[in-house]
Specification:
Two copies of one chain form a homodimer. With 452 residues, chain A is an alpha/beta fold. Chain A has three domains: 3-123, Rossmann fold; 131-253 and 354-388 and 438-447, 2-Layer Sandwich (Dihydrodipicolinate Reductase, domain 2), CATH 3.30.360; 273-336, no CATH class. Helices cover 36% and strands 24% of the residues of chain A. Chain A binds chain B through residues 187-188, 193-194, 196-204, 207, 263-266, 269, 271-272, 274-275, 286-288, 290-291, 338, and chain B through 187-188, 193-194, 196-204, 207, 263-266, 269, 271-272, 274-275, 286-288, 290-291, 338.
Chain lengths: 452, 452
C-alpha cells in the first residue's frame, strides 16, 4: 500500500487530486491532501474513502516533518518558491517528489543528493512545462530513429479562451494566476535563431517572435518564453547542428503589441509601491505619461495615443479604452505596485464568467532533413475546458503530474535525481494515457520549401 | 584625543584621508585607514605621523570588532552594500558613522537605535548625494526666511570631462565607477512635476526630462535620478504646496538618446551571463538585434540603424561606430553579463588619459513667489579636477565627508539617529569651509515670465 501526499488543494490541484483518488481504488493507495485551508482540501476529496484532508503550512517545519515523513511520494502544487524546501525534507525523509513547476537553480543543485539517495525529484511535469517536453521529445526521438537530422524546434503553448466565449477585444481572459500574466516576460528571454543566440530584453519581448495560423482557430502570435537555450542540451540536440530552438507563448493576434503599451508605460513593474489613495484610472495613466504628451494634447486618450505612436482609432487604442483606463473611476487601492493596480483592473475585465470555457493550444514544429528532403513535422493540441471551474488548463496541468505519481507508485520508472520528463519511459505512457482523457496531438508532416 | 577610522583607501577615499590627516595636526587626532590592500592604505597615509594603515576586510567580524571598537568615529567609503553591517557594529560599540552613500532602507531602519544610543549615522554627505543637499537646503531656508513660497525645486549634478579634454563624440569619459554609469537609471525613477507624481520606467528614463544651458559650457540634458519624491518630505516642503521637485543627472547634450540605444538593445542588463568565448563586438550586436532587421539589411550597421529608427548618418550612429561595435574585434571575455561586456568596451574607450581633467557641474534652481512675484534662484557650481588622479569628483565626494567627521570630532553638532545633511548646523559650516577649497556656488536670482 503506497501513501501519497498532495500539497495544495487550490484550482491547480483539482485534477491531480481526483485522478489519484480514482486510481487509489485500483492500486490501494492512501492519499493525504494538505492545504492551509483544511476545508478546501476536504472539499476536493469529496468524501472519498482513500482520502484524508489535513491543515498544512509549508513554512511550518513540524507540518512538513509530520506529513512528509509518513508517505512514499509527495506531489507539490504549491507556488514554485516552496518546492526547494519541500525537496529538502523529501531528501531528509527519503521520499520521491513530483511538481508541475520549472526546476529552479536551487532545486537543480540537489540533483546529486537525490541521485545518491536513490530518489526522484521530477519537475516540469504539468502542461507548459510538461506536456510540451513529452510531445516534443517523442517527436525528436521518433525522427532521429528514422535517421532525420533535426534543424529547428519550435514549441508553443497558450492558455486562452474558447472561441465561443471570446467576447472581448483582447481575445483573452484569465484562466490561471493573473499576476503571472502581468509579469510575463520579465528578465531576459533567450533562444537560438538561425544558428545565432538571441537575447530579448523585456522592453521588446512583446514584439512578437513568430506568427502562426492554427487549425480553424485563426491567427496567433508568439512571444519567447524565458530561456529556450538551456533545453537544447536537455533535449540532447547539441550534436545535431540545430540552428533554431524557440519556446514561446501563444496569444491571439494583436494581443502582444497591445500588451506592450503597458510595458512602455511601466505598468507591469511589481518592485515598488505607489500611493493611489483616492486616485482614478486616468490619474494612473497621467502619472506614467511623459508630461510633454499631456501638455501637447487636449485629452488623455490623445496624449497616450501620441506617446504610443498610434492613431486615435488604432485597434490598440480600442483595446485600452475598453479596459476603462480613461475613466474617472476610482482604483480602489491605497498603496500598491503598478503591477498590482493593472492586475486588479484586468482581473475585473478579463474574468471568466459563469459558463465560460477556456482553451489550451499547443503547437510543436520540428524541421528536419531526411533523404536530402527538408521537412516539417507539426503536432497540434487543442483542448477545451468544461466550464469556468473545470478548466482545460487545470486538467492539463494536473493529469501529467498525477500520471507521473502513478508511474512512481507502480514502480514503472527507476529514475533518480532531479529530472524533467524527457525520457521514453515517462513520455510514452503519459502521452498514451492522456489520450484516454481526450488529450492528444494531431500530427502533420510536410515538405518544406527549398529556400526555407 | 579623538580616534578616527576610515574604511576604504581607494580613489574615493584620497581626499578624506588627506583632509583628516591635515586636520589631525591641529586637533590631535589619530587616524586609522583600513583597506583590503594594506599597502594602498599605507600609500595614501604617505608617512603622516598621525596615520596608521591596517588590513581591513569588512566581511571579517574580528577585523570589524578590533578596529571599530577602538575609535570614536568611523567614516566608510566602502561600497554602499557594506554600510549596514558597519552601522550595526557602530551601534554595538557606540561609535558615530559617516558615509557619502545613499541611506538605504536597511540603514534607515536603524534610526531609532542610533537615536537611543545617542549616536549619529550621517549618510549622503558626499557630492551627489551630499553637496546637493547642503546647497539646496541653504537656498530653501534662506528663501523661506524671507517669506518666499517655494513652487519648484530642480537639483542637477553631473560628473563630466573638462571641456579642454572633451575629445570624443560622447562628450563623456569615466571619472568614477564605470559599472555605476552602465547600470544608471535601472529600477523606477520618480519625481513630482506640475503637482503630479511621475513614474519613469527604465525603458524611457533616458528620454531626457529637461535641457539646460550652463554658463559658457554649452548645452546639457538631464535624466531623472532615482526617487526624487522622498526628498520632498526630508526637505520639509510638504506644506509649501510645491508643484515640481526633480533631482537629475547632467550629461552633455546628445548623450542620453545615444545611451538609450544600449537600453533598447538590452546591453545594460547585469542580471545574467552569456557565453562570448571567441565572439566579436559585431557578434554581440547581432545577438541582441531582432532577426528581421539583420535579414532586411546588407550590413550590421544599417540593421542597427533601422532597429533604432535612425538614419545611417545620424550622430547617434557616429557615436556607436566610434566605439567600434561594428568591428570584428574579439570581446576578450568568456562568460559575462551584457553589462560587463559593455562596461569593458566603454572602460577602454572612455578612459581618462594622462593629463585629462574632470569637471563637476551642479545646478540647483528654486522657483518661488515673493511679494506676488514669481522668481527663480539658481546656484551653479563648476569645479575642475587637477589631473586624471586628482579628480574633482574625488575631492567633492571626500571633502564634505571629512568636514562632517570634523564637526563630530570637534563636538560642533549634537545630532543623533540616521540622518542626511539638511540642517543649518551642518550645511553652513561645510559650505563655508568648502569655499576655502575653491568649491563654491554662483547664485543668480531673476524674475520668471508670468506664464512660467
Amino acid at each position: 500500500m503506497k501513501r501519497i501526499l498532495i500539497l495544495g488543494a487550490g484550482k491547480s490541484a483539482s485534477h491531480i487530486i481526483s485522478y489519484l483518488l480514482k486510481k487509489s481504488e485500483t492500486f490501494d493507495w492512501k492519499i493525504t491532501v494538505g492545504d492551509l485551508d483544511q476545508q478546501l482540501a476536504q472539499k476536493k476529496i469529496n468524501g472519498h474513502q482513500n482520502g484524508t484532508a489535513v491543515q498544512f503550512d509549508v513554512t511550518n517545519a513540524e507540518h512538513r516533518e509530520k506529513y512528509i515523513s509518513e508517505v512514499d511520494i509527495v506531489a507539490s502544487l504549491l507556488p514554485f518558491i516552496f518546492h526547494s524546501i519541500v525537496a529538502k525534507d523529501c531528501l531528509k525523509f527519503g521520499k520521491h517528489l513530483v511538481t508541475a513547476s520549472y526546476v529552479d537553480k536551487e532545486s537543480m543543485a540537489m540533483n546529486e543528493a537525490f541521485e545518491k539517495a536513490g530518489l526522484l525529484f521530477m519537475g516540469e511535469i504539468g502542461l507548459d512545462p510538461g506536456i510540451d517536453h513529452l510531445a516534443t521529445m517523442k517527436m525528436l526521438d521518433t525522427l532521429k530513429s528514422k535517421g532525420g537530422d533535426i534543424n529547428a524546434v519550435y514549441s508553443f503553448a497558450g492558455a486562452l479562451i474558447h472561441p465561443d466565449h471570446d467576447t472581448n477585444p483582447w481575445n483573452y481572459k484569465f484562466t490561471w494566476a493573473p499576476m503571472n500574466v502581468v509579469k510575463a516576460g520579465q528578465g531576459v528571454s533567450q533562444y537560438l535563431y538561425n544558428f545565432k543566440p538571441k537575447y530579448i530584453p523585456y522592453n521588446r519581448v512583446f514584439n512578437t517572435a513568430e506568427d502562426r495560423e492554427i487549425g480553424n482557430l485563426g491567427s496567433f502570435e508568439v512571444y519567447p518564453n524565458r530561456d529556450s537555450v538551456k533545453y537544447i542540451e536537455k533535449y540532447d540536440l547539441e550534436s545535431d547542428g540545430i540552428g533554431t530552438f524557440l519556446r514561446g507563448t501563444l496569444r491571439k493576434k494583436g494581443y502582444c503589441k497591445a500588451w506592450n503599451s503597458f510595458v512602455k508605460l511601466g505598468w507591469t513593474d511589481g518592485t515598488y509601491k505607489i500611493n493611489v489613495e483616492g486616485a482614478t484610472y486616468n490619474d494612473f495613466v497621467a502619472q506614467f505619461l511623459p508630461t510633454e504628451f499631456i501638455q501637447n494634447n487636449d485629452d488623455l486618450k490623445s496624449a497616450l495615443a501620441e506617446f504610443l505612436e498610434l492613431e486615435i482609432n488604432d485597434e490598440i487604442m480600442d483595446k485600452l479604452t475598453w479596459l476603462g483606463i480613461f475613466n474617472n473611476q476610482a482604483i480602489g487601492l491605497t498603496e500598491a505596485s503598478p503591477a498590482e493596480i493593472l492586475c486588479k483592473l484586468l482581473a475585473e475585465k478579463w474574468k471568466l464568467e459563469p459558463g465560460d470555457k477556456d482553451m489550451i493550444v499547443m503547437l510543436h514544429e520540428v524541421d528536419y532533413i531526411i533523404n536530402d528532403e527538408k521537412r516539417r513535422l507539426s503536432a497540434t493540441l487543442i483542448n477545451m475546458g468544461e466550464d469556468e471551474e473545470n478548466t482545460a488548463i487545470s486538467k492539463l496541468v494536473g493529469l501529467p503530474a498525477g500520471m507521473m505519481v502513478k508511474l512512481i507508485a507502480t514502480e514503472k520508472v527507476g529514475l533518480t535525481g532531479v529530472r524533467i520528463p524527457i525520457m521514453p519511459e515517462v513520455y510514452n505512457p503519459i502521452l498514451d494515457e492522456l489520450k484516454e482523457y481526450g488529450v492528444g496531438f494531431e500530427e502533420t508532416d510536410s515538405l518544406l520549401p527549398v529556400n526555407a
